[in-house]
User: Fold these one by one.
Assistant:
Number 1:
Amino acid sequence: MAKGDGGSTSRGKRATSPPKRSRTASTGDPEMIQLLTPDGERIDSATGPDGTEYRVDFTDQEYRDIYRDLVVVRKLDAEATALQRQGELGLWASLLGQEAAQVGSGRALRPQDMVFPTYREHGVLYCRGIDPIMPLGLFRGVDQGGWDPNEFKFNMYTIVIGAQTLHATGYAMGVAMDGKTGGDDGEAVIAYFGDGASSQGDVNESFVWSSVFNAPIVFFCQNNQYAISEPLERQTRIPLYQRASGFGFPGVRVDGNDVLATYATTRVALDNARHGQGPTFIEAYTYRMGAHTTSDDPTRYRIASEVEAWKAKDPIARVRAFLEKQQIADADFFAEVDEHARREAVHLRERVLAMPDPEPLTLFDNVYPNGSPLLDEQREQFSRYLASFEGSAH
Amino acid sequence: MAIETMTMGKALNAGLRRALENDPKVVIMGEDVGKLGGVFRITDGLQKDFGEDRVIDTPLAESGIIGTAVGLAIRGYRPVCEIQFDGFVYPAYDQIVSQVAKMHYRSKGRLRLPIVIRIPYGGGIGAVEHHSESPEAYFAHTAGLKVVTCATPSDAYHMIQQAIASDDPIIFFEPKRRYWEKGPVDVDASPADAYPLHASRVVRQGTDVTVLAYGPMVRTALDAAAAVEAEGRSLEVIDLRTLSPLDLGPVYESVRRTGRCVVVHEAPRNVGLGAEIAARVTEECFYSLEAPVLRVTGFDTPYPPARLEEDYLPDLDRVLDAVDRTFGW
């Protein structure tokens, strides 16, 4: 299979250069790892600030598969946004623009690895084999997460910003205590968070903990440039990945819109973790093309030209351009993928509309593993209260 | 049955030791819990005997202690976290309230977080600020947490083991001023055979007034009962032991006999445990009450400088003053 002619480490400017003090957070960064340019040119390998070399050697089928993932994930996300607009979901946190960061890192996971997501990791969730309707149940308000975290090795969504990084760190400490690091079959943990979360105390504490306990963890930060309305420069004056060095572990910035680069960097970092080499910070430099959530209005805090500039770096268009140029896929393939994604979206919509509201008394379920007489009493009282309406027109 | 006399501090240490022996998944984590054995020496010698992986000296960050405990619990461990002092729990409050308390519920029961959070609490030791607080109401108000407190070495020994064995997340308040008081402990009894964790207990029978207390105030209430016995007044003292859920069945039974009820706690009065108890007792015992339920509590001030704490803290005289007032209606 033909490769692009980049083939150099020219993009791997060493991190010893002084940190930039750019006021425009949306500019790219020459230090970031990239294996596929926005124009669809392949770069054979890229070198990280610590000298690590990153590359991928996908088969044609693997290239086509990862393209399919990207398209399906985007389509399902668009369907969820539409469902919210039609009143079927209370809220939706779109991942539009971040597909490559999520699919690349999600596909880099091995089955034994454990994921601690935020509330926007629908693409990683999809890669984990979880029914994509699950997060819609949460945003529709019928439950607070319907999947089994242990079955899929993908924890509950976490809405409190950054809290999950500590859970991931504790879990990773447990992995090490269980003796499950040190070989190819070792386990690793990945914690997702964003640029806004990087300011949270919990995230910084998780860096301290994972560093001093040498926990097998990857901190995967999707720097999508905005924490709701606040731009990156309100969170940091240095590139986020450089923070890692202050905590004593490596950090690397990757083109978050490049699915091959996010895959490669995550794979290396996870493998380092599972082999007992401790944490890595990956800053996936990307852009939230949509609103923070469906309750947000991004036109109040960012300009259209910025969004347009990022459109040119679209994570899916570049894979398609590459597949076309290298003749890895033809028009029939792209049409079939689009049809596949459309069918998935229709299926999702049908099932969301059919989702029943939970029974009222289930609100008392699972407060405590061992139950509580106080709750038993309240459930009984509320049950009798509800029964008092039976037969009335209420 | 081997009865040993020991301090509450030693009883907690012995209970933790047994929990570590009985379940390899039990880990202790906190600041200075290792070589030092904790600032109150409650974990004295445990790291030496069980190793640094089971008795973990953590970085100095309380949210980190609880947040990593959540992850360890998801991994299958049973973390026992020590918060060094009551006033230092607040940085961990978010993790406790938003994560520890809710994850079982949010996961539809799939995840269990068998975490015990030990907090030395209350005043009376002449400490500097932030070292004498009684924050139990914050946690008792939070669904998904259970909250208990011990008043004797025997309860300390058994309740800490029961809390660790429970799959519920439990806030375990230890009355620090009672750490050095001694009492008999049946060290052979298993946690399952001991008095239940979530049950209040009548610790002195009486006929005239029901006095409710927990943690450090149980001793104060018992002293008050002994002091008025000679005057011919008979106080029934109940050690609440479990603050969430409250076990008020024995309280209702008692108040229906005595007709009078006084609640004692160190924590400030406003929206404290006493308010909830007074409301519930009023609902359940309305026709038996000869007087309103009265509260003897700390004041609604920040915890004062140590030279004022004897004025702030409920003592025997303030308890008896309230007892007397219940006869004024």
Number 2:
Amino acid sequence: MASQLIDVNISKKYAGMDVLDNIKFAVEQNEFLVIVGPTGCGKTTLGNILSGIERPTAGQVKIRGEIIDPHRHNISYVFQEPSCIPWYTMIQDVTMGLEIRGVDGARTMERGKEVIKLVDMVGFEDYYPWQISGGMKQRVAIARAYATNPDFLIMDEPFGHLDAQTRYLMQIEIMRIWGQERKTVVFITNNIEEAVYLASRILVLSKLPAHIKCEHVVDLPQPRDLTSTEFLEFRAAITKECEIVE
Amino acid sequence: MNGKGMEQTKTVVYNLLSLVVVAIIWSVFSYWQNSPFFPSLPAVWRAFVGLITHGDIEQIGLGAHIWASLVRIFAGFAAACVLGIPLGLALGLYPRVYNRTRAILEPVRFIPPIAWIPLAIVLLVGFSRYAFLIWLGAFFPIFITTLLSVTRVNPVHVNVAKVFGARRWYIIRKIVIPSVLPDIATGMRVGLGIAWMCIVAAEMIGGEMVGVGRLILKYAELIRMPEIIVGMLVIGVIGFIMNEIFIIVERRIFRWRSEVSID
């Protein structure tokens, strides 16, 4: 078994209401773990806690045995909402993490260009967010997350705001990127098809208060075909087993 | 692009047309009244030319009046910016301090500058009286807009920096300040307008015989309407020009904000 990088054991309450109820799981090195759950089940709260920007009410998130802390650990987070900084050009935006970490200018530019190429946005370095499409903005957010070479990458419904076609293209893209620069990823979504397409392992969350309903390893080979019989069968099986009502 | 230019031309033409309509109504009214209290347009024009060429009853030219008033409002306005922006930022970042001092700050906002005149006369002298009254007018719009804009900073932008381990000071410099700057600019524009509107009140108590507000007051004592109207129009037109310049500068500086206008 591969080494465990992240160890999660948390509960979260808001104003006395249970949101996350004893969520317990581990993430292995270089794993692509997808967490699926219905709308409004506290997925974003979970993402925020995993990234260390929000504190759990009880328990903790540990990375290599230490409590996760953005000041000390190399974490990246792709947010559900559009998150491009309106007054930054694309190149400024993707290199923001490097700048915060105090990486020197030349190295920052080099890496910035690298990740812009990685997400296929060459030529748009000096554009502002208002000049590009929603799908492109999400690519920039992904490039920004990759730029710092994170030990742990969290993506919270990163394609939720996109239309079906762009979403599909972005899924192919994210798998291509993950194939090139393999990271430890937790990907949060409400879309079971997306989960089966991307995941090496799936965790299914229940409705509020959210707990882990079931866990499933996805052993289909990559790249996967959304329309193949195996894919559809797998999707049907996990839907049934985890009692996901689609 | 062509459609846009066409639209601009139309805007200018319609604005000129409305001016002509107002001028006609004015002329009909003054002709019908035939009274020195409703001067005709030519009478106002003659007063305007007279004020420029010969100056007022004390031989002070219109240009000198305008210049004196502009210097005063910019002094008061600058003081309002210097105090209002940092204070607004600080209280926006520490809303608890604001909430606990609201009882002092908020009522002061509703005291009109003109009500401060007696106190200003007693406590202040000379130029500081002008600056104080104008500062009162400009300070609150600038302070309040700055304060409120800080609370409207998009939390996602703050979180983007936080996840990378950014310190508070970095977040303030790189996220909070750039995102509130357009709102501060709007506050400044509104503040400048109100500062300019306070000029007559300020010059009531300034003591000097120069200034557009003072010009109006001088001719009010003589009940000479054409010169009064010239003073009023000068205030209106200069306020309009300042506002337009400000809007153009705002658009230039905050081009990243033009999310709606470009398709």
Number 3:
Amino acid sequence: MARIPYFDTSKATGRAKDVYEKLPNLNIFRMLGHSGDMIDGFIKLGNAILIHSELDPVLREIAIVRVGVLKGASYEVYQHEEISRQLGMSEELIKAIHEGPDARVFDETQRQVMRFTDDVVKNTRASDATFNPLAEKLGYKQLQELVITIGFYTTACYFLETFDVDIEEPGHKSGVKLPGMQD
Amino acid sequence: MARIPYPDPAALPAEARSLLESLPQLNIFRMIAGAGASFVPFMEFINSYLNSGVLDPELRELVILRVGHLCGSAYELHQHRRVSRMIGMNEERIAATAGALPSPLFNAAENAALAFTDDQVANVKADGRLFAAAHELLGDAGMQELVIVIGTYLLVCRYLETFEIDLEETDIPTSGLDEIRKGLEKHG
């Protein structure tokens, strides 16, 4: 049970009202409504990461699910494993995100993203050992996107866990549609 | 020296370049202008709580400084000490964000928010009693903003430290908050 009541989205006003007309039907968004117009900026940044960034979607989801695993955020892990499956990621690959960077199923770049994510989450500053190979492989723009993704989804984990946002009932249709998803 | 080069403004997309030109001249903005599609939304997002948030500005800055201490981010601390002074906070209160809680220099809401911040950063899901104590004083909207601000400055500290953003040689003359607001307004 959530720690405070969900926001009644029919009562949204201003920019938040426009935001709710386009958002998927998910409890995280219902909860976020108490923050008023701030939801607009929060969602725009989330959309930039999920829809408009150049980072490969599989690498992105590996980082997001890994952040959820490291932070023990069951809602985030649940939602982003759903997205991962719809992007065509195998169950073995999804399971490996829980195991750690050394899991055999990862290719080299995926393993580097796992190591980098662990490093940034635990140590704030990524070490040369995790930073340099990824900077070379992804380039500066995508590396910035990766750090922003890790940071943004850490915020999401704190929000989800602290407000105890409930996972939706089985069979719930969220309506999430992202580039690269299979129908 | 930053770990990657600051982007050449002339090589940025027109939208990013025009926003960057109207922002305070800070190295974090110079660098993050090269983050592609995330740059403009990131600035819109931080503008929303910096300039139209529900939290008291001094409480917000105390929380941001506390996160800076917890992460050990010299750039974040430097900039937000500067913002804190500009909005009228005294040096004793700024310094106390590095110290033990509760502090007699903070009011009840500030002490509750800072105790919550420590617990949130350490444990992800904040303790029920600390949540309730802060919630009673800040309300639903204030609590949501507090949680999001804490998370966002963890993001900022990780970004600053991982890319090793350089402190400017000279401080900007203003808090920078008005320039951010006007820059985003101009941007539409």
Number 4:
Amino acid sequence: MVTKNVKNVNPVRGQRVLTKMQRKQTSNGAHFWQVDHKLKNISEVPGNVILPSPQAWQKFKWLRKYFGEKPKEGYFIWVKRQVDFPLIACINIASPKISQDLTNLLVIEKGIKVKANVVCSAVKNNLCGTHRAKGKLLLKSGSSLEYNHFHQWGEKDFVSPDYEFILEKNSRLVYAYKNLFPPQNLLLKTTLQSNENSSSNQSFVINGLNSRIGISDKVNLSGFNSQAIVRLRLVGRKNSQIEAASQIKATVLSGGHLDCQGLLVDRTAEISLTPKLICQDKNARLTHEASIGKISEEELTYLRMRGLSEKEAIDLIVTGFLEK
Amino acid sequence: MRIIYKAVKTLLKIENLRVKADGKEILKGVNLQIKKGEVLALLGSNGSGKSCLAQVISGNPKYKVTRGRIFFEGRKITGLPPEKRAKLGLALAWQSPPAVKGVKLSQLLKKISQRRPEFPESGELMEREINLDFSGGEKKISELLQILSLNPKLVIFDEIDSGLDIKRAEKVAGIIKKELVDKGVSILLITHWGQILSHLRPDWTQVLLDGRIICKERDFKKVLRTIKKYGYEKCKKCKPR
């Protein structure tokens, strides 16, 4: 299985994160690929299970407690055997006014280490699509997941991902959500439940442009000695409103850190950050840092003196901010 | 070697430049001229306006030119934005360059030029965020790398020798001489120390005090001797030639 690098580089609208060719390559290499409501491809990964969620609901009764209700569409990935390449899932909107209602479930078995790249995108800018996704990620004891979640939407889309992470003891999660081309409306919700000795590192990188964005992420440190880091990097460009509420709650001895930073690039942008720490155990240690600022004039002048135009200099600073 | 590049053409000409920052007048009628291939040293005490002059020549919008003009290769650049001045061949090595978080030095160099100058010390710096937690010496190397990438006609070095020990100052001076002076690039060398001058041997040495050029002398040693003996006050009695 040849995997493709889907890392994006430039947050400037007009320069797509994934080129058409890259998208094609990524989709062709995807283990699960859905376009609109249609399943385009499922690859077999020996020893593991990849199915559309409705089929998984029928086949495995034990899954029903995780799905809640019968899913309409989406993917089920059950990693039972170690794979040394990233598992790739692609969900696209390619037709106008499509409304996706996905239920995704990813289960990592005990002691397995895996990497997953998930790309959700609209292939055109003005499809007025809706992408609702309810996801659950279950990391069993001692397992490890590195999950890269890329979003790229058109200017008139509505997107609302709602993800729940369940970390069993000694498991480890690295979750990176990146959305440099936001839809008109984005409502991103995540909740994380940690158990004994588990650790999580979540980052949310969002570039707001002509969009309303709401983020709610909650971490519940209920496992002894569990650790969590949440990192938000938000950029407010033209006509963007971003409201982010991050919360870490510790009920036992554990540690958590919230790092929320906003960068206002345009005067029509607004960013609101609400970091919240709830501590119910005197031995737990929770910390946070939050800041919102504009681009430093000194940095801008410095880069312009190197021959970069004002726009190029801003883009470089923003890229650096998002990558940091 | 250097002499063959010396042409009579004036590269930078400043006429009666008056500059304000935050409502305060810093430069009070500066006249200055640098010819092609020339090295001009500008000395002055702290707060005399040296760094302000460097920033104004390079187009920092923080400083407001209230009177006077700046010409580069005969073209008036007084109102030109910094990036256009850089494209014309004007480069400034900052005294205290700001950190640009999240941006690696290699990323910036890739953006500004195809040229890839290299020094033994540059390898490790390339993959670090620009000026973030750089030591004094590393900042100077980083500035030099950027300057050389720009392939400039005139470089302004603002206190390039500050924060460097003697050995490092010698090394930096050696790079400036080899990569710029010997190749005919004009230099405006701003310093209040003067230590670096013996390595770069300026054609002219001038003194800026209270926002005015008060001394212009061919022999930099003479100026340094006077400053060392009597301080900058003695320079006030010297008539610019």
